[in-house]
Amino acid sequence: MSRRHIAFACEAETLIGTLDDAPGKSGLLLVTGGNETRAGAFSGQAHLAARIAAAGYPVFRFDRRGVGDSSGANSGFQGSGRDIAAGFAAFYQERPDMTRVVGFGNCDAASALMLFSGAGCHSLVLTNPWTIEQDDGAPPPEAIRARYAEKLRNPRELARLVTGKVSLGKLAGGLARAMRPAPPPTSLAQDMKAGLETFSGPMRILLAERDRTAQAFLSAWDRSDPRLATCPGADHAFSDPQAREWLFAHLLAALAEE
Question: Same structural domain for residues 77 and 18?
């Protein structure tokens, strides 16, 4: 495995990417979310790239325009289609022998890949896609129901309820919010579905059970979608060891698909 930094063009701007090279003919295009640089929070994406490359598959990650080392204005994930396409092209320029590229993104990076029909990728791994357009700070009913279900399975929480250590007013308010119907799908969620209608490759939609973003996505998506999988107990970043291994196994499986 070797690591090198690459400059490439996106319209009139210069983007900077990092290639963790390996001999495999399937490669992973790692798309960053939010305003994170290509290294990720606490270098998490750099560590993941090194691990995937050590398993034999090349990984390319990059800073989109206006983020990190790349020039230009930051137009957010909804304006990142050309950035992702430029990253895809730069990856192939460095490794023209690749036969397929798997696009991977978390949160709004997953949403971007959906909006732009995979941006050229042959396969997609999408984790916790972002569908929230108006965030009032309150958890969605899905999240509240999940939290109360977890509490009801905990003998310690049941003992607190029986002994009067739980506010019945707060409990009633929480149950009322939990019983509210899910809001209708946002236009963002509908645009993401429309973007995927022209994508015909394999796809995995991976959700972290304890993540509010994932719970909001699930309320706007068809639960019977066979491409959905949920990691029990995982947070948004799949930060605990069991969740990291679960995600890593899914990425390797996607890269190994023919």
Answer: yes
